[in-house]
Every structure is written in structure tokens, then in C-alpha cells.
Amino acid sequence: MKKLLIALMTTTAALSLAATAEAADKLKACWVYTGPIGDFGYSYQHDQGRLEVEKALGDKVETAYLENVSEGPDADRAFERLAREGCKIIFGTSFGFMDPEVKVAKKFPKVMFEHATGYKTGDNLGIYNARFYEGRYVLGQIAAKESKAGVAGYIVSFPIPEVVMGINSFMLGAQSINPNFKAKIVWVNSWFDPGKEADAAKALFDQGADIIVQHTDSTAALQVAEERKLHGFGQSSDMIKFAPKAQLTSLTDEWGPYYISRVQAALDGTWKPDNVWLGIKDGAVKLAPYTNMPDDVKAMAEATEKKIAGGWNPFTGPVAKQDGTPWLKDGEVADDGTLLGMNFYVKGVDDKLPQ
Amino acid sequence: MDITVNILLTIATAATPLLIAAIGELVVERSGVLNLGVEGMMIMGAVGGFGASYLTGSPWIGLLAAIAMGAVFSLLFAVMTLSLATNQVATGLSLTLLGLGLSGMMGTRFVGQPGERLPNLDIPGLTSIPVIGRLLFGQDPIFYISIALTAAVMWFLFKTRTGLTLRSIGDSHTSAHALGIHVIRYRYLAVIFGGACAGLAGGHLSLVYTPQWVENMSAGRGWIALALVVFASWRPWRVLAGAYIFGAVWIGQLHAQAFGIPVPSQFLSSLPYLATVVVLVLISRNKRLTMMNTPASLGQPFVPDR
Amino acid sequence: MMRLELVKRPQRSALFSALSPFIAFALTIIAGAIMFALLGVNPLTAFRIYFIEPISQVWQLHELAIKAAPLILIAVGLSVCYKANIWNIGAEGQFILGGIVGSIIPVLFPQFEGPLVLPLMLLLGMVGGAAYAAIPALLKTRFGTNEILTSLMLVYVAQLFLDWLVRGPWRDPQGHGFPQTIQFNDSAVLPELMPDAGRANWGFVFALVAAVLVWILMSRMLKGFEVRVLGSSPRAGRFAGFGLNRMVFFAFLLSGALAGLAGISEVSGAIGQLQPVISPGYGFTAIIVAFLGRLNPLGIVAAGLVLALTYLGGEAVQSALGISDKVARVFQGMLLFFVLGCDTLIHYRIRLIGLALTKPQGTAKLEVAPKLKEAR
To answer: Which of A308, B119, C177, C282 lies at a 20 to 30 A Cα distance from A317?
Structure first.
């Protein structure tokens, strides 16, 4: 038995050695996703980015991924496994991977790590994120123009800063067109439950909203809008196929260009840990083609998009907090730190932030 | 008035898959078998239904495929627990695990493809009657199936000889066997019926509720259906009531939020589960009633001895 | 048309008892080979990566222990319940409550340090899990409410409660608003066994100790006898003077405490803080582990390790061969089915017969006793 075991182990070792030798000239880039790549939402978009890397860099890279990795000890193991299997650069795509990635990065100083949406960095750990709130400002403006009732329904997952930031930015955009604009907010406590998202959309429509915005991943809410002949916005990916008459635009994540540039840097040996927050101007936040709206609204949206790409921040004063206390003075721009930890609403949001 | 109708329609859509899956499981449990694999059969029905509808372009074929898929998948459970007398709880859980994996594998190519929705009923003259028109004559076909199914199962279990036999098997497979009844054969049919229902419920998800395919889209509804059966103390019409109460609480908490009631959403989300516990307690306090309806041999393997 | 027929063995077959896991494994390998071949992957490569690689490296052995520990701890407790014919399927919720209650000290009193912290946390974790398990026990004994469903419903409530805690009152004020508590201080972290070799912590030791203790309890002590008697025949148990209600509480509290211990061990050992999600479904997977281990605490240790291996192997083939996570789950499902199916051979002989048109000959006398034995 023992002999057999040793024999097996040597074969394994020999085989894995051979595998490493073969792959030596290729750079291995790896991804860890928290959801299934079949969610057609957040993890799906990251995986599209991985596929773009494969397409753009061809023979020079090989890629691997682990999907459905839960946040906790499983994540530690996932990163350690990839690091040991010869991945030279590893992208962790969920906030909950932060501490596991920090731990594993310390253990493997030669491997390059990147973590999305977190705030901890290290000698070989960079962070990246996307300024989705920029796009949400544009959505707010469109909503205010297109809504007859002056009320939007907003379906949200969890009260984390990114989501709160999105609600605020949306409201600022909407108020810039219609100061009395209202949003009704429903928390579904899930990133992904098509049935519940559809039910939430119906509830919001029934209570008088005539436009739906979501910070959840499925296409269900838009399908409801399509059925009711009302409008809404897509999320993560372009969902026009699901709601050809209802989708006004979709706030999409385009990770491909960023991933290609980072893997290329790793190939060139110029990779350094960085802290980047990509926005509309970097092409990481994209608004899908404007549809189902009059030309003047479309022109306005395009102009705002351009303004933001030119460096203007939607969180530019004067802005007051929900209770009316001033937050940003006239012309003052919110700093990234405050935004990344945002846990308060701006004036006009009709909801109590879950604490 | 319009909002009330809309809310009622939303509740009906939310309740329909729960009702169908629960009615199927009710028949299974009445025969004395506990199949905890409802979630797995449901998700298989969802992927089968969507896949067939997508490939053929006909949601009606999708509907049939969903039913067939659920039935075939439940056969696996039947062979294991009935022919091989494995533990029903463990086998049911394994079935769910397998279903979630298998459906994800089969559905890879359907991700991101819009599906066609089964059309709502539209009877000229009737559907446009104010208020009751849309409620009675304007819903999706599976809604009507779910109501008919409930009535049919009620009639079958309590008004037919075969139904009586099935119930007697659930109460005591040993005495049923002694009377010369094919216990295993009845149970096979019951399990397959339950699977077909769960498949249909899954088909409702991917063909009506949210016409698309995504992994894990059943999101725990199979478990709720299981709870409903006990909630209803194995009575079909109570399953109907339970499914609609559950749907109402579910939709109600979303409306409460949209209305701006400042309660942490986690508490609202947990309401349906707490409500189920409370109702279970209330029902079980009535000992006589529970004793009368609980299939006595539920969950116990049966092997005919010669 | 062919039909399977089971013929009860006069006593359990020792041969098949030992052999059945291997037959099941062989069948899984065959079915798996077909599946991998269909997917265009060399089955031999796939199996090597799936089963051998994860146990040929020391760090992976540690990971195996981390993954297996909660499964074993929970399943050992559940085995007592199931032997007593009490259906606690809410271990997931008890696990979560154990994690929450055990975290009271490091989260609310972070300045409290010293050697007392950890034992207190573990104790609180067990109390938390047991208290949560007491709810279905109370409802069952007091009102006769079906425990399968109440314990299951309470899982969802526990998950939402944890979610609320870490997003609300227990959120780390310095955590940029993200949903997690503060990192536990050093004296609240369950130490690793061999920090140089890998990450495995004391949780695995707890699991082994619990398995041995429960094994002794069940096979060597009166309480174990009581569990088995009440489980197989409540009537006989009552004649012997065993209280059914007391047994319900005993089984629920024991399994709840062990699930709670697993919860706090996971939180303080492997995670180091509370998060919205602390379990990838351990409480449910443990049910399968309990049955794979045939409700025997020592068998459960083996079953827990095997199941943990299938998780590790699944990840290994995913990253090495690009095989999707779903394939690994299907493979896991097949293994479970084969193991459950092959265990039938222990109690029964299987006969394949042609379609029997004859009606089964009812053995007019009502034999209840053997039925109850099968019901465990």
C-alpha cells in the first residue's frame, strides 16, 4: 500500500513537473469569482473580461478560474491553490475576498494579486474598482426626463457603500432635472433572485413608479417593465435582448480592457500594485446604446456622459445630506475615501438606510 | 382598484409554483414517501422547460418538457428509495444537490438568452370585464392548471377508490401489503407524479415568472413547497390557501418597503418563515386533526417480504 | 421488463458492510470516466487531479482538515438525532447561532483578552447552538409540531439575523461601511495546529474528540442504548421507562451544541470575524455526511474526509482542466447516490426478476417489528 502510494505520488510529481515545464513560457492568469459564471450578471461580466484577455493576448497567456467560491475559508484555499498551481497574476473579484487575498498575497510574494472593490493593498496586492456611480447619475437624469409620475422604483441588494453611492448619485442626477423627483426603494437582500426581483418590480410599479432601476443582477425586473409597457435600466450586462422596448440603457461593467492592460504589464514585467478606480473615461463603466427615448433626452444623456468622461464628478457641491445638513459646499468635490465608505443618503431620498 | 387587482395578480404568480410543487409533494407524502428533492426536481424542470422552449421556439413544448424532465429526474429518487430502500432524507438531499449541478451544466448555453413567455389567457369580452376579468380570465395557463390540479388531487384522494388505496398505503404500508396492494407500484407512480409537478413548477419559473434561464433560479422555492405540505397538514385545499397566504406575505413585505415602512428588510424577509413556524405550531396544537391527516408511515422504507 | 426485488438478509452482511463503499467508489469511477470522456477530458488525468493531488501535498491535507472539521462535528451530533428517529435538519441555523453567540465577547468586548477568552467563546458558541436547537425541540414536545420543518425554517431566520447584525449593530465602524465585524483580537482566534505546515486549526481536533466521545456514548453507555431503543420503537422505549420528550431535548441540545461549536470554531479559527455568510451550507452537507457514515461517529469521520476531498478535488479539476464547478457537483451527487444505493446490499440481497404478473402474496399476519427496525 505504502509503495503504491509513493509510486502514485512520484508519478503525480513527475506529471505536474512536466506540466509546469510546458507552461513555463506562457503566463498564467487566474480569476476567482464569487458567483456562477452563468449568472449573466456580475461574475459573468468578469468572465467575459477573462475571455477578452485570452482573445487579445492569445498564445502568450493561459487562463484559469474558480467560480462559486464562497467568502471565508474556501476563498483562502482558492487563492492558495491558484498561487501554488503557477498562476502569476490572480484577480479576486468580490469584496469578501479581501482578507483572504491579503493573507495569501503575503505568503506568495512573487505572485501578483489584484482585488476588486476592496481597500487593503500590499507589496504585491493592487486594488481596482469601477465608478458605477458615474453611470447612475446619467440614469437619474434620464429617469427624471422619462418618468411621467416623477417616481422611480429602485431595487437594491444590500446596503453596502457601492449601492448607497449609486442611489445617491442617481438621485442627484434626477434632481438636477426635476427637484421633486422621488425614488421608492426596495431591498431584496440578494444579488440574485430573479423571482424576487420580478416581484419587487411589480410592487414598485403597482405603487406608482413608472421607471425601474436596479442594483441587482438579473434581467427579471426589466422583463416586468417590458410586460407592463414601462421603462427601466439594465445592470452589469446589456439586457436589451430581454427588454427591447423597455430598456432605456444599461449600466454595464467592461473589465476586459483593464484585465488586458494588467496582464500585459505582468508579461512585460512592469506590473506594480496600484489603486485604480476606473470610470466612464476608462471605458470600464459603459452605458449601453440609448434606446426607447426621444432624441433630446438621448442628447442630454450623451452630453452628461461626455461631461463625466471629461473629469466632472457627480458628487460636486452643493449637496446636502438626507436630514438637510450640508455635506458638500458649492463646487466642493467629494473625496474618494468618503465615497468608498458612504453610509448616508443625500437629500430627497425617501428611505431609511438600513443600519 | 387597479392596484388591488395588480397585487392579487402578483400574488397569484408568486403562489402558483409553490402550489403546484406542494400539491405534487402532497400526493407523494400521502403515499408515505418523503422526497426532499423538490428543489432539485424544480430546477431540472426549469432548465428542461426553458431549453425545449428555446430550441423549438414553442413555450408550449417547453411546458411539456418541464413536466417530463421533473418526472424522469424523480424516477432516480424512486429507484433509489423504493427499489433499493435507501434512506429517503439523504437520497432527497442528494437529489437536490445533483439537480442543482446537472441543471447548471445543461443550461450553460442558455444563459443570457431571452425566452418566450407563455401567453396569458385572453378571451374577448371576458378578459376586459373590470376587476374580475383579468383575475378570472386573464392569467397565465399554468395558473389555471394549478387550480385544476388542486381540485383534481382533492377529488382523487378523497373521492376515488385508488385515492383511498394510496392513502391507506401512506398510513400503513404493512397492512396495505397484507391486503395484496402493490405498495411499491403505487409509490412509484406517486413519486413520478410529484416529480412531474415539481418540474411543472420549475417550468412556471422559466416560462412565466421570469422567462429566462439562470443557475439556481429556483432560489429555495422547493423548500418552501415542502413546508407548505406540512403547513397544510396534508390537505389539498389548505395547500392552496397556504401558498396564497405565503405569496401574500412575500409580496406584502415588498410593498411595505416600497411604501416606506422603516423596518429592517431582513426582518421583513424572515416574516414568511416565521409565519410558517407559527402556523405549524397552531395547526399541530390540534392533535386530533394532525393525527388524522399525517401519513403514519411517512419516510419509512418499505420492502415487501415474501 | 425487469424488476428489482430485495430479499432481506437474516442479519447484516459483514462482507458487504466492508465492501459496499468500494463498490460504490468503483461505480462512481466508471460513471465519472464516462462523463469526463464525454466532456473531452482524459478520465485518468481527471481522476488523478480529483482524488490524488489533493492528498499528495501537505498544505492540501490541512485544507482537507479545515473543510472536514465542521462537517464531522455537525454530522456526529446529527447521527444521535437520526438514531433516535428525531429529524433535526436545521443544523445550518444552529451553526450560525453558535457563530453569533460565540462572537459576543470578541465583538462587544474586544479589550477583554487573555487565556480565558477562547474557552468562554467556545462555551458560548455551544450554548448558542443548543439554545437555537431547543426551539424546535420545545415546539415538538409541547405542541407536537413537526421538527423537520420548524428546524428548517429557523435556518432562514438565522441567516437573516446574522445578515442584519453584521450590516447593522455589529458592523466594524472602521470597515468603510462594509458588512463585517471587527477582526477578532489574537486571544480570540483559534490557534493553528502546525502553523508552518498549513492552516488547519483546533477545530479538527474538536471534531475527532467529539466523534470518539459520541461513539463511546452510543456504543458503551446506557444513554446510547436508550437512543437506539426509542429510535427504533418508541413503544418499547416507553415500557422501558425512557422518556420520549426528554430524548427529543437531549438529541436536539446535543446536536445543536456540536453545530454551535462547529460554528464558533469556523468563525474564530478559519475566518477571524463575522461576515454576512459564514457557512457554505455545512449544516445541510453534514446530513449527507451523517448518512454516508451510516450514523456511526467513526464512520462519519471517514465520510467527512471523503466529502471534503470531493470539494477540494472539484476545485482542482476546475482550475487545472477548466472543468466547470457544476461538473464537480454532479460528480459529488453521483458518488452519494452510489454509496447510498450500495449500502442496500448490507441488509438485502438483490434479485433481478422478470416482470412478475402475480400479485404479491400478502402475508396475512401483520408484522410490524421488522419494519420499525428498518426505520432506524
So the answer is: C177
Under 8 Å between Cβ of C85 and C155: no
Looking at the fold, whether A290 and A164 belong to one and the same domain comes out as yes
> C137 lies in a domain?
yes
Cell of C188: 480570540
Q: What is the pTM of this model?
A: 0.85
- Choosing from A114, A130, A146, the residue where a domain stops is A130
Whether the CB-CB separation of B48 and B66 falls below 8 Å is answered with yes
pLDDT of residue B299: 74
| A118 plus A138 within the same structural domain | no
Query: Is the distance from CB of A345 to CB of A353 less than 8 angstroms?
Result: yes
Q: How many domains does chain A have?
A: 2
- Domain ranges in chain B are 2-293
What total number of domains does chain C contain?
1
Instruction: Judge if the upstream peptide bond of residue A294 is cis by omega within 30 degrees of 0.
Output: no
How many CB atoms within 10 Å of residue C369? Answer: 10
- pLDDT at position A4, please? 47
Q: Smallest Cβ distance to C176: which of A76, A77, A161?
A: A161
Does A206 reside within a domain? yes
Chains that touch B (3 or more CB pairs under 8 A): A, C
> In which band, very low, low, confident or very high, does the pLDDT at B289 lie, cut at 50, 70 and 90?
low
Distance CA C296, CA B86 (A): 16
User: Are A321 and A208 contained in the same domain?
Assistant: yes
Chain B residues touching A156 at Cβ < 8 A: none
ipTM: 0.85
Distance from CA of B237 to the nearest CA of C (A): 20
Q: What is the CATH number of domain B2-293?
A: 1.10.3470
Give the whole-number percent of chain C exceeding pLDDT 90.
Answer: 36
CB-based contact B91 C156, cutoff 8 Å: no
| pLDDT of amino acid C25 | 83
Cα A25 to Cα A21: distance, rounded to the nearest angstrom: 8
Domain boundary among A130, A156, A190: A130
Q: Check whether residue A113 and residue A90 sit in a common domain.
A: yes
Average pLDDT of B205-233?
Answer: 87
pLDDT score recorded for residue A149: 92
Q: Which domain holds residue A63?
A: 22-130
The neighbouring-strand residues paired with A31 are: A65, A91
CB contact under 8 A, A66 and C325: yes
**Rounded distance between C-alpha atoms, residue B20 and residue C180, angstroms:** 39
pLDDT at residue B292 in the model: 64
